[in-house]
């Protein structure tokens, strides 16, 4: 097995470059300084400032909670990349990254992927139920009306989020435990450093789990892309419909929401998952002892660094998501502007009355204001 080869055969060490030792730690430090306050503010707004929740508010709250967990891992990742080549594999700091930070990172990356997908689907459900087109969407003929109604319910959104958290945690924890206990097991001499071939490449089980996660990501990506194309087609059809005056603003808002989610997935998540599939194929080839090249540095050192840089790009989403909330939800936008004193002040009674009225509208129409 690959694990035995990594542990018992003399393999060239990974040689971190300037990018790994200095650039990546600096980027993770910047993500911590921007992501932690941004997501903390977002959670506070969702919990304390928005009087009436919609299904989208529920999804965005759980997305913010996941992003906050990711932001808390960034200082440890910065320390790992800067000091990992000097840490012994058995050191407490290395074990903390191995047993704690890595599972939290992987769990929250895929929780966010699932939740972003559900946000796009719920936006699409609002679109096809509250606008008109010259022809109905194909989805309305294939799926029952009750399905789209349920997508917009707060109780259903909470159940979906609980299911996502439970499913991802239960699927990830056993793999990460096996990875940290077996695939990165310290040899008897204890001389291996933390930033090593075993740590960065893992064994057969973790690579198999990565293949599954890549497939899941592309399934979610295609769902969001399909929603985007369906919305674009629906908007085109609605322009030829007589009853469009009251729905054009909603059409534009839903289209913008799905475009924002699609851009986030393309910029932050897609490069990592494309390269990760290539990386797994290369590592599988190098895992054969007959093909391993021994020398002062492992031949895949540069490939590992590219993978780690793209992983940092996926973490960037935890810092840009509060900006996404600002663009997706007008209620969130308004309360943030009030908190930052960038919005004209209103009296508390007037603001309460407006919030109550808008809450009733949201419950009636299922739209975000």
Write the layout of secondary structure elements.
Elements: H1 2-8, H2 18-49, H3 55-83, H4 92-130, H5 138-142, H6 145-151, H7 154-183, H8 197-201, H9 204-238, H10 248-286, H11 301-328, H12 330-339, H13 348-365
What does this molecule look like?
- With 369 residues, this protein is an all-alpha fold.
- The chain has helices spanning 2-8, 18-49, 55-83, 92-130, 138-142, 145-151, 154-183, 197-201, 204-238, 248-286, 301-328, 330-339, 348-365.
- It has a single domain (14-365), classed as Rhopdopsin 7-helix transmembrane proteins (Up-down Bundle).
- It is built from 13 helices and no strands.
- α4 packs antiparallel against α7, α4 (92-130) runs parallel beside α9 (204-238) and α7 packs antiparallel against α9.
Name a few traits of the molecule:
globular; transmembrane helix; mainly alpha; transmembrane; disordered N terminus; 369 residues; GPR82; GPCR_Rhodpsn; GPCR_Rhodpsn_7TM; Rhopdopsin 7-helix transmembrane proteins; 13 helices
Number of strands: 0
Question: What share of the residues does DSSP label as strand, in percent?
Answer: under 5%
Give the CA-CA distance, first to last residue: 56 Å
Determine and state the CATH class.
Answer: Mainly Alpha
Net shape: globular
Number of helices: 13
Provide the structure class: mainly alpha
Main location: membrane
InterPro entries: GPCR_Rhodpsn, GPCR_Rhodpsn_7TM, GPR82
GO molecular function: G protein-coupled receptor activity
Keywords: Membrane, Transmembrane, Transmembrane helix
């Amino acid at each position: 097995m690959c694990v035995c080869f990594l542990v018992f055969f003399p393999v060239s060490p990974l040689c971190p470059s300037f990018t790994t030792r200095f650039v990546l730690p600096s980027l993770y430090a910047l993500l911590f300084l921007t992501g932690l306050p941004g997501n903390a503010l977002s959670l506070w707004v969702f919990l304390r400032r928005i009087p009436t929740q919609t299904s989208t508010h529920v999804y965005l709250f759980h997305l913010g909670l996941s992003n906050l967990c990711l932001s808390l891992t960034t200082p440890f990742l910065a320390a790992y990349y800067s000091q990992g080549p000097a840490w012994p594999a058995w050191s407490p700091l290395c074990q903390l990254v191995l047993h704690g930070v890595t599972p939290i990172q992987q769990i929250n990356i895929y929780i966010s992927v699932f939740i972003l997908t559900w946000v796009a689907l719920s936006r699409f459900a609002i679109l096809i139920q509250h606008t008109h087109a010259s022809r109905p969407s194909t989805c309305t003929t294939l799926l029952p009306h009750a399905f789209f109604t349920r997508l917009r319910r707060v109780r259903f959104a909470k159940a979906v989020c609980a299911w996502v958290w439970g499913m991802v945690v239960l699927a990830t924890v056993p793999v990460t435990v096996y990875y940290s206990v077996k695939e990165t097991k310290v040899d008897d001499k204890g001389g291996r450093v933390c930033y090593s071939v075993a740590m960065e490449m893992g064994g057969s089980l973790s690579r198999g789990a990565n293949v599954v996660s890549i497939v899941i990501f592309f399934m979610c990506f295609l769902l969001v892309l399909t929603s985007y194309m369906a919305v674009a087609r629906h908007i085109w059809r609605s322009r030829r419909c007589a009853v469009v005056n009251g729905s054009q603003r909603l059409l534009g808002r839903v289209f913008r929401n799905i475009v924002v989610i699609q851009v986030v997935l393309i910029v932050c998540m897609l490069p990592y998952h494309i390269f990760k599939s290539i990386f797994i194929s290369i590592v599988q080839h190098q895992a054969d002892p007959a093909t391993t090249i021994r020398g002062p540095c492992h031949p895949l050192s540069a490939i590992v660094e590219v993978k780690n840089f793209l992983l940092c790009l996926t973490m960037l989403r935890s810092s840009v998501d509060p900006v996404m909330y600002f663009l997706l939800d007008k209620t969130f936008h308004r309360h943030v502007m009030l908190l930052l004193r960038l919005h004209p002040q209103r009296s508390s009674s007037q603001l309460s009355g407006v919030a109550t009225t808008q809450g009733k509208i949201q419950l009636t129409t299922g739209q975000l204001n």
